[in-house]
Amino acid sequence: MRRLYAGLQGLSAFSAQPGLVSPTEKRGTLVRNSYMTISSLLRALPVFAELSDQHLGHLATRCVTRTVGAGHVLFTTDEMCRGLFVVEPGDVHVYRLSPDCREQVQQIELLGRSVGELPLFDGGTHPASAITLEETRLVFLPRGDFKELCCT
Fold this sequence. Notes:
152 residues; alpha+beta; Jelly Rolls; four-stranded antiparallel β-sheet; 5 helices; 27% helix; globular; disordered N terminus
């Protein structure tokens, strides 16, 4: 449990790297040979597709990026939402544990997919847990910054 909270505190505390997100490697059939801006990464998500360039740019400046190793816990079931994660290169395993402690895979999120968006809207807790399967670069948008946009 200490590792989990240390990881979460570290993720929310690392400094922002606005502007460019690292180039990605080949993932399935998608190849990106150039740098992608955080704004472009957010724009590709359905939840942000209709935002104005001004609002999207504001959110992008609030995002922070970090590369974490395999086995890094992003959040656990019933934990309060700290924000939204977007996978740049890497894989994130979203799962629940059954009453008999068997892992039930909900989904595996890959390049360009968001993780943890449901409680971002309802203010509740995460319905599942998420952990990285390999070295993963994450873009993190703190919940408070998302709420600020919704309230304006």
